[in-house]
Structures are given as structure tokens and as C-alpha cells.
Task: structure prediction
Amino acid sequence: MLDEKTIGQIIENVINNMPGAITKTNQKGVFDTMGEALCAVEKAYKQLKNYSVAQREKMIENIRRLTLLEAENMARLGVEETGMGRVEDKIIKHQLVANKTPGTEDLKPQAITGDEGLTLIEMAPYGIIGSITPSTNPSETVICNSMGMIAGGNAVVFNPHPNAKRTSNYAVDLVNRAVLEAGGPENLVVSVKNPTMDSSNEMVTSPLVKLLVATGGPGVVKMLLSSGKKAIGAGAGNPPVIVDDTADIIKAGIDIVKGASFDNNLPCIAEKECFVFDSVAGKLIDSMTQNGAYLLKGDMVDKLLDTVLIKNEKKYSINKDWVGKDAGKILKAIGIDADPRLIICEVPACHPFVSVEMMMPILPIVRVKDIDEAIELAVKAEHGCRHSAHIHSKNVDRLTRFAREVETTIFVKNAPSYAGIGAGGEGYTTFTIAGPTGEGLTAAHSFTRQRRCVLVDGFHIV
Ligand code: NAD
Result:
């Protein structure tokens, strides 16, 4: 006989596994075709023009409230649908989006006055924005983009990652529910039930879409930047972390384990390879193993390489089966029974674990003799993505030198990588970090265009 709890779990599993469904089939803003989605969002944008900034802010406040309320649902759904990440960390990511994504306060108009009158520079909407979102932070990106884009006075059409469509469309529905409850228009953000390359092309080429935003790997950024339209590209990274001999080594070990294991290393900002001074390497590794890391040695490192990466001729690429998986599952696949937060291993600088953006809770550690070697190797490993880099050191000259040479959008000193997006560090958050196109950490202001209004002779008081 099945007890009540087991029956409940079975029903929940069946519902969760129904294609395109979460707990209901009619999701607000989610359409069968891109054509229908574009039609609906055009209508919504026309209506939004009649709303005040204060009304937009009310919608955003309500998105914050519902995101906090439903953070766990989205975290669970994200892990279940994509098979990647950790529920407890995804909850934190949603809370971060709800609490630290800027709203309309981010829009700062300018006024210039003088003998010849008054000139205003205002931050105007683009109109309808087309956004392509990743599988690694699906609902987080949809909600964060929606908040910034709506704050800027825009409407949004999403073409989410096909492997995360249920989670992404849950977020589209949530945003619409929040907007409607706050008195806003229907279908202010829209999406398609089954996103494909065709629906993506239709969105990108639609004359209704005035700005494109891509959050993902190099393929999608290149595609958007070749579209002939204004585009914001938030692309891949491969963030190095340096630890020198002046750092608080125990704290550095703790911080790096926290950052590199967060959501199983899915975040694009997470530490993905470590360069440590030879003189402090042993102490750093001890600190890591005492704080959640498992040190892999010898042949087992080769076995791990053969499992998580695929070799095509001379080039390595990721075996997608292992992206974002728990460290314990990865270890089990190579015959080790342990369940740490992170796997670490010592490798030479030329090892593929260093050069490939793996997005797995695996951190290769490379010993270096001094800061010159550390910076040279770290800059090489970052591949010029200009994304993120991190360092643990108390030597100001070295901190400054690495920052100048690596030229990344985010640079974190003496903290886990996620401090760079406002988790335990100052500043707002975003899940769309636009390195290639230079907007940096995107927020409402990134989704506006400047318009100038000039009044000559008069209307200033000096
Ligand atoms: P992905 O590149 O596989 O997919 C991202 C999105 O682009 C998806 O919606 C996908 O369907 C679409 N896409 C991919 N190739 C395309 C093409 N040629 N034409 C049109 N659409 C295309 O990325 P993912 O695996 O979901 O996410 C991980 C990658 O994204 C990593 O490289 C990570 O560093 C990067 N990322 C960057 C940021 C950032 O803010 N810079 C944030 C999150 C993820």
C-alpha cells in the first residue's frame, strides 16, 4: 500500500514532468508561435507608453515580491528540467535578483543650463527588446532582464534556451502575473512554448524588435552581433583566480571553494582555474580540503579528464552530460564514493581543465613561482573574454597590476567570485554581464537610448 506522502510525490512528479507545464497549462505571455507573441507584445508596448514611471516601479516592486515568494519553485524546476545546479544556490540567486536588481531609480536624466537655455537628456525606451537567455540561469535571467527592461519603459520578447523552456516560461508567467496585479498591461513580456532556432530568427529579424540582448556562449553573441541591429552581448568567460603569498591563505581557500562550487560552477563569473604561489600552495589546498573540497590525484585526474571532456583531434570540449552536476555524481562516475562541494586537482598550466570553460564543480590548481608567471597564465586562461577575474592578495601593486592586465568587466579582490554581482559585495546585481559590447553589468540604463530636448532662451533661473 502506498502512503499519502508517496502518492503526493508521485502526483507532483507527474505534473512536473508534463511537457510545457509547471502546475498549469495556461501561462501568461507564453504563445504557440513567435508571430503571436510579437503581435501581443506590440499591443502591450503601445499601452505601456501611457503608464507613468511610478506605475512601472509598482510593477517592478510586485515582480520582486513574487520572485521571493516563488524562488524555491523556480529553483527546483530549474534543477529538475536542466539537470544542472543546486536548489539551495538557485534559491539564493533568485533572492539576489529580487533584492538587488535596480528598478527605475537607475534612470538618471541630465539637465544642461546656460546662457542659451535648457537642454534635457532623457533615457527613453528602445521599444520592444528581443532577449535570448541561457540554460544556466534560466528564470533568473528572464526575471532580471524583465525588471531592467520594464524599468526602462520597454516590452520584452524572449526566446529562451530550449533546454530550459519550462523554467524560463514559468518566469515569463510570473512577470506577467506581477505586472497585471500591479495594474499593468497584459503580455508585457512574452515568449514561445517551444523556442527553436526558427523562432529565434523570426524574433531577431522582426522589424518590431529594436534592441537585441543575448546572454549565453560565443555562438549566440556572434549571431546577434551580425544581425545588423543594435545588440548587447553577454558572452562566455573563463575566470581565473590568483592566490599570492601575502593573502590570508585559509580565508582564500574558503572563499574559492564557496565561489567555485556555487550552483555547481554554472555562473559565468565563478572561479574556473586557480594560480597559486608555490610557497603557499600546500596551505591553500589544505584549507580547501578542510572546507568542502576533494583533492583528486594521479591517474584519477586523467580518468576525470576522459569523463568530463571530449577530445576531437587536438581540441577539447565539454561533455554536456556533466555540466552543472554535483561533485559527488562526477566522482561516482570515476569510482570514488564521496560527496564534496568541489573537486580540486593539481595540473600543469597547459592542461585542458585550465583552458576549457567547463561549468562543473572542478577547479584545477596550477603552481606558479611569482606574480609575473601568475598574471601571464591567468590572462592567457581568460582568453580575452574580458569577463571576470579574481585575486587573493594584500599587495596593492599586484592587485592593481592584475586588474590592469586582465581587463575584465568584473574583478573581485579577497572574496568569493559572487561578490562581483552583489552577493556579499557592494553594488547591484545582474545576470547579463555584457563584456563583448561594453555595457558591463546591465541594468535599466543599459536598456534605454538617450534623447535630447532643447529649449533656447529662458527657463533657467540663474
Ligand atoms: P548557450 O550559448 O548554449 O545558449 C544561450 C542561448 O543562446 C540559448 O537560448 C540558445 O538557444 C541560444 N543559442 C546558442 N547558439 C545560438 C546560435 N548560434 N544562434 C541563435 N541562438 C543560439 O549557453 P548556455 O549553455 O545556456 O549558457 C552557458 C554559457 O553562457 C557560458 O558560456 C556562460 O559563460 C555564458 N553566460 C554568460 C553570461 C553573461 O552574463 N556574460 C551569463 C550566463 C551565461
Summary: The first strand starts at residue 30 and ends at 31. Residues 8-14, 16-23 have pLDDT under 50 and may be disordered.
